[in-house]
Amino acid sequence: MRTAIVVGAGIGGLAAALALTDRGWSVRVLERAPEVTEVGSGISLWANALRALDALGVGKQVRAQALADVSAGIRDERGRWLSRTDVATLRERFGTPVLIHRADLLEILRSALPEATVRTGISVRAAHIDGTVDHSEGTSTADLIVGADGIRSVVRRAVCGEVAPRYAGYTAWRAVVDTAESLTEFGETWGRGARFGMAPLADGRIYCFAVYNAPENAPGTLDEVRARFAGWHHPIPELLAAADRNTVLHNDIYDIPDLPAFTAGRIALLGDAAHAMTPNLGQGGCQALEDAITLSRLAADPNGLATYDRRRRPRTQMIAKRSARIGSIGQFAAPPLIALRNTALRLAPASAQSRSLAPVLDWTC
């Protein structure tokens, strides 16, 4: 029986473990955290990700715990629409995306794995192209090492050496709030060097995020964020007022430069370890799910890892570049650029969004 060690129990790591297990591999997942969980964050799953989840056999469960993302668009700080999503066309062309709490998605993936597959509290110190992994409990060897250990991946060093994440120039606060506010229209609001996003979850709570230009590692408080967005349209101030400072997440936004390879020897990288991207297209987790399916179907072939690299690297790097461009436009701070951006959004035909999304969402297993 072929063996695999997956380093990292995030979305990509658990999906890869499940996909490989379904194909007869013996899999161990090594996770440094004491438990597999995530608080304060939702995730959009577009049609390409849902196809991957269907291939894993958990798509039905995900949809049952998710809410269909049926209305969206972009507004300005006063609440005036700049762009409305053509929901009917997107649904007909690609299928309806859903929004789910990340913790729920992780639990669905973890529960689908055999007992004891995931071992928590184990820190990986190094990986080697011969299939050896050095970790806090000793050394392990496998036929395949999957580096799913995030943007600051340890496993990636064996493939590409040290790769420094790049700061995107803006920071993000994310929260899942329990509030009496109800959303009839949701999506994103774009202002001057700042954005706010909101969407409902299936359990009645609302996932929201606030993004603004800031120096790297700049300190900040939730009260400062509330003050920054105090003049924005309803219900943005109300959502921030309901955010719990004990569960809100604050992270600077990074990506990584294009890697020259996703594989070396017995090692394959996926997810953020391979192509960490800014969240502006909602494709980070979706691409990790695509990676997992593709890798599981190729890994047993003699040249399978080379084929995986050829298929996944150009696609994910293209999507990362698109996401970075959208982020740059969304974070415009100069008034003339904001005026041009907002005018372009208002004048763009509804069909433009569908055409632009097609290369991203048309992926099939």
From TrEMBL:
Chain ranges of the FAD-binding domain: 4-322
GO molecular function per UniProt: monooxygenase activity
Keyword Oxidoreductase: yes
Alphabetized Pfam families for the sequence: FAD_binding_3
UniProt keywords, alphabetically: Monooxygenase, Oxidoreductase
InterPro entries: FAD-bd, FAD-dep_Monooxygenase_BioMet, FAD/NAD-bd_sf
Keyword Transit peptide: no
Domain of life of the source: Bacteria
Name used for this protein in its record: FAD-dependent monooxygenase
Organism: Nocardia halotolerans
